[in-house]
Amino acid sequence: MNVHSIIIGTVCDNLFLANNIANQQNGEIMMQKKVTFKNNEHEMAGILFFPDDFDETQQYAAFPVASPAGAVKEQIATNYGSRLAKYGFIALAFDTSHQGESGGTPRQLEAPYERVEDIKCAIDYLTTLPYVDNERIGQFGVCAGAGYSMHTAMTDRRIKAVAVASMSDPASWIRDGFDGKTPVETQLALLEEASNQRTREANGADPIYGTFVPEEVTAGMPNTLEEAHEYYRTPRGQHPRSTNQVSMMSIDKMTDFSTFMFADKYLTQPILMIAGTNADTLRFSEDLLEKAASKNKELFTIEGATHVDLYDKPEYVDQAVAKAAAFFKANL
């Protein structure tokens, strides 16, 4: 690779990304490169992050970084990918199919099995790079991307180790509600409406979109949703390509997805789950710690952190990155 092809993080052709990295990395220069790769018929958009002392004649451990639902690569995946690269890894942040700069129609679709395929295709791409050691490929994810990361590792045995932060079960949220108490009757009514919308769109109707996070904060709202609003819908973390839209066509696809099914049989790789002690999603990590077949598994908690704190707050993200880096160094 010609060193001139590596984009420096303070270059202003992508002002949001440059400012984001500068803010999160105390102004340090980052080595990165915009890339594209294929997921079947459509093109995926990504950003490769390189170690400070990158040498194209050497080989490095590498991993994709899977984003939360509705996020784009310039947000949380960049916060982690850029930091983890400083520990000597190649990290690939990418936009989910149907979202951001990645292709795929309909737009703003959240389709779990495609999210899993996204990760596998990202690994395909990494294996084509001469400076990636194919025997040292891992996987990292945050929030929904963490759940998808664990699911992918069950069947893609190229993944040698998985580390995640603020893990959630995205299918469970849609199926059972944020508190896990949505009645079956309500779930069935939602599936009826999603099925009817599929018929309408097949006959030329416009798509209908819901929201990933609330557009307004209301009294009694779960803490994670309130903080997600603050991150995604205010200058703290918002990005023009993170539209907060989710296609109604996502509902049935998410309802019948079981994120952690067969973890007791197939999730045998070393796994690390990082979660805040104040995160109302901590239960997902606790449950998987008990269920996963892996003999090398750990839940690392960060005192005082909430679910969304691990998206971007340096005092918490830096702890998560240091722990994940040590884990990957030991297991890749």
From TrEMBL:
Database matches in InterPro entries: AB_hydrolase_fold, Dienelactn_hydro, Polyketide_trans_af380
Key words, A-Z: Hydrolase
Coiled-coil region: none
Gene3D superfamilies registered for this protein in UniProt: 1.10.10.800, alpha/beta hydrolase
Record has Amino-acid biosynthesis as a keyword: no
Residues covered by the Dienelactone hydrolase domain: 79-189
GO molecular function terms listed in the Swiss-Prot or TrEMBL record: hydrolase activity
Pfam families linked: DLH (PF01738)
Protein name: Alpha beta superfamily hydrolase
